[in-house]
Amino acid sequence: MEKQVFTAEQIRQEVLRRLIQGTPVPGDHLEKSVSLPIAHSPDAEKRNWDMKHDDQDQHNDYIRHVIDEARRDFLLSDSAERDEILGDSFAHS
């Protein structure tokens, strides 16, 4: 299966959707646990991003599982990585 190429915000929204859809505790608010994806060089499984999440979250294993599934399904677009670098350069100037 070919991976879809998404922006950082699109990936974040898809991870949030999956978290809410499959949450082990209905009504739980997992949104606070997910940040924007962080780009990295492609690894052996051709994943080019990862996400940090709140390690203190009671659903830590579930959140990590959902993020790992999304990493298999989606590539972070190059333009998202360039936008992040460009944004950092403005923030530090």
- The level of helicity is 40-55%
Class per helix and strand makeup: mainly alpha
Mean pLDDT: 80
Beta fraction: 5-15%
Model description:
- By secondary structure, this protein is mainly α.
- The chain has one domain.
- 45% of the residues lie in helices and 11% in strands.
- The protein has helices spanning 8-21, 60-73, 78-91, and strands at 4-6, 38-39, 49-50, 74-76.
- Helix 1 (8-21) crosses helix 2.
- The radius of gyration is 14 Å and the shape is globular.
- The N and C termini lie far apart (42 Å).
- The model has no long low-confidence stretch (mean pLDDT 80).
Topology, please?
Layout lengths: L3 E3 L1 H14 L16 E2 L9 E2 L9 H14 E3 L1 H14 L2
Parallel strand pairs: 1-4
Antiparallel strand pairs: 2-3
Helix pairs in contact: 1-2
Task: Provide a concise account of the structure shown.
This protein has helices at 8-21, 60-73, 78-91, and strands at 4-6, 38-39, 49-50, 74-76.
Task: Provide the descriptors you would attach to this structure in a database record.
93 residues; mainly alpha; two-stranded parallel ribbon; 45% helix; globular
